[in-house]
Every structure is written in C-alpha cells, then in structure tokens.
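Hi, here's the filled form for the chain we discussed.

Project: internal
Contact: R.S.
Residues: 431
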Amino acid sequence: MKQHTLALTLTSVLAAMAMQQAHAAAFNLNEHSASGLGRAFAGEAAIADNASVLSRNPAAMSRFKSMELSVAGTYVQPNIDLQGQSDISALGVSASDLDAQDIAPSAFVPTFYLIQPLNEQWAWGLALFTNFGLSTEFDNNYAAGLIGGKTELMTYNFNPNISYRLNDQWSFGGGISAVYADATLIRRAGAASASNPLMSDDTALVDLSGDTLDWGWNVSSLFELNEANRWGLSYRSGTTLTFKGKFSGSASGVSSMSPLTFNEVDGTLDLELPAIAEFSGYHLLSQQFAVHYSVQWTDWSVFKELTANSPDCNDGTAGECFSKPEEFSDSWRYAIGGTYYLNNLWTLRAGLALDRQAAHNVISIPDTERLWYSLGTSYQATPALSLDVGVAYLQGKDVTISEQLSAGLPNAEYQSSASAFLASAQANYRF
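And the returned structure, exactly as it came back:
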C-alpha cells in the first residue's frame, strides 16, 4: 500500500522509533533525553551535561573536551478519554455512543547522540531523534467514525551538526536535517452508514497512507559569561512534508458494490511542520545547586489545513480527495528546574513546565494545556560512564470539543480529559 523510498541505511538505524500521541502542544514532542525529562526540559539549550544537548543547541558542543555518546529511551503512557456531551438525533446517536477511552496508545521513543571535538574551536555531532509524532485510534465501528478513525504521524530526524567557538564567551552551531515521515489517515462511516444499505459502521470512507523524505536546518548560539552562568538560543526551521502514497475513499470512485469498496489511487498531501525557537539559561548559585529555565516558541500557525490531491479524485472539487481545515495558533512552553549536585557520584533534578494549547481541538488531535511535574537523577558509575533516569507526570486541562461530523450534519460535543506518565533511562559514555 505504501511507497517506501527512504534509503535502507537510514531506515535500519531509525526503525525502532515508535509513533505516539504528542506530549507538547499539538503534536510536538519533547522526549529527547532522560536527563532533560528529569528537569522538565528546563535549560536544555544551555546546560550541556551530556551529548543530548544536540537536540536543542549544537553550539554547546564547544563545551565538550572529548568524544561523548548518549543513548536514551523514553516510555510514554498516555491516558486520553472522551465523554460525549450531546445526542445526534439525525443519526440516532446518543451522547454515550460518543464515549471513547484510551484513544492514544503507549509508546517507546529512543534517541541517539554523538559529539566529537576536532580541536579547541571546532566540533561535529550527530543527533537521531524526533520532534513530531501522533497516534490516535478509535474502534472500527465507532459511531463518530467520520471524524474519529485512525490518525498516525511518525517522523525521524537525522541531524548532523557543527559548532565553532569564537572566543571564551561565544560559540555558534548549526546543522541540516533529513526528516523522514510516515502517515496514515482513516475515517469510517460509523453511524452515518444507517442511511446507506451498502455501507457498514466500519466502511472506510477515507483511507490515506504515504511517506516522504524532506529537509530542514537549524542554527544556535551559546553565550558563557563565566563557568557558572550561560545562555543558549536556538532555532530549528519548519519543514514542508509532501507525502506521496495511496488513497481510497468515496472521492476516488466505487470499484465494487458488494461489498462496497473504492478505487485505490495515487495521491499527495502537503503537511507544514512548524519552526521551533528556544531560549535557555543556566546559573550555578552555589557549589551544589543550580537553577535553569527555558522558553520555547513553536510556529503552529503555519498548520492551516490537511488536503489530499489526486487527478483521479473528486470530493466535490475536481482533483481533491480529502480536505479538512485546521485552526492552529503559535504556542509557548515555559519550564523551570533545579539541579542539586549531591556528591561526586549523584546528581538530583526536578522541574516544572507549562505547555500552552496550540490546536483548535478535534478528537483526532485532542490538544490541551499541560502541566509537567518532573524528577530525575544521575549516577556516575565510572569516570567515563554516567547513567540518567527521569520520570514525569503530565496533567492536562479538561477541555470541551465541538466538531462537525460532515457538511449538513450537527456537531458532536465532547468533554476531553488527558494525562500521561513518562519514564526514561539514558547512558552517557565519554571516550
């Protein structure tokens, strides 16, 4: 069904990465390291305590004196429930028929980072991680299947970087990214099948899948006032993903009446992923305690619509297979944390963060404002090897969702609740 065009080498390195429901605004991901998770990712563009800083600020590679490798994995257990708030009498649907529990599956997210200093001024590094991902899935016979089927987006970021130390205070960095993405979108008839004897609840009226490889870039800087105080600023470009894959649905024409099936056609879909900017600070207030903070901006206003096109489709507009407007707004994330250097072996961390909502809510991307509560620790096992563990609980704000099933049909009304538990482990080795 899908076209797979990505080079085998990249696929083999990244195949373990999993799709998940996003745990920042909209479907932005922050799960880049265990050390960062333990402080709610506060100060990530400035701290540079291991190679995972590459995900936020490659300019900070200038602080490394020898090669360092960091490998991490994060387990994400979301809990997103929807409770119907109104009947849809035109379809014979009661409010309870709209209920749905645990619509986002658990996931495991691995990351990999390598930093190699070349001399006192130059360094290079490689980061493999993801910034965006989403997975929600409803039962095949869900009453509101027109808006609540299967939605999956998986992205992989292969990001080589370089850094240059200008002087004792200033360092600069940048890189390019090969961004591979794979997406699936399925919408089913649900209760709307009652008006058509050829359809059942699980008849797929939209079935779109495809993948793509596109490019992005990132730049950053680090200012070190002294060893105890530094600030980082980074910018990661947006990326336009042009998916090429397969579409079948009511817009592609009927291929069989019994059972009702639709033609499969080649199609394309453009998805705008937003730019991300972050400012971070780190301040060592005593020999044992430091405070750090971050402000992150994500340009979600670029995400205006989802439209799939094919010369073989007509959904009322010639050449259009599927179209859905989106109403996203730019979002902000604020984080503050503390690090306590207990002794030469143990480091303790804690953090709080607030993710502001970006999306105009729909049940396939049930966005909400989130509070992060994080704890973490590091253990220096040997002079070369350190181990990190971090955990976080995310409490989402309950929100009301009102979404129209289809033109001419009334809105479905929901109350959405969301929370998540995250646990991460990481190993760092200095050569």
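Let me know if anything looks off before we file it.
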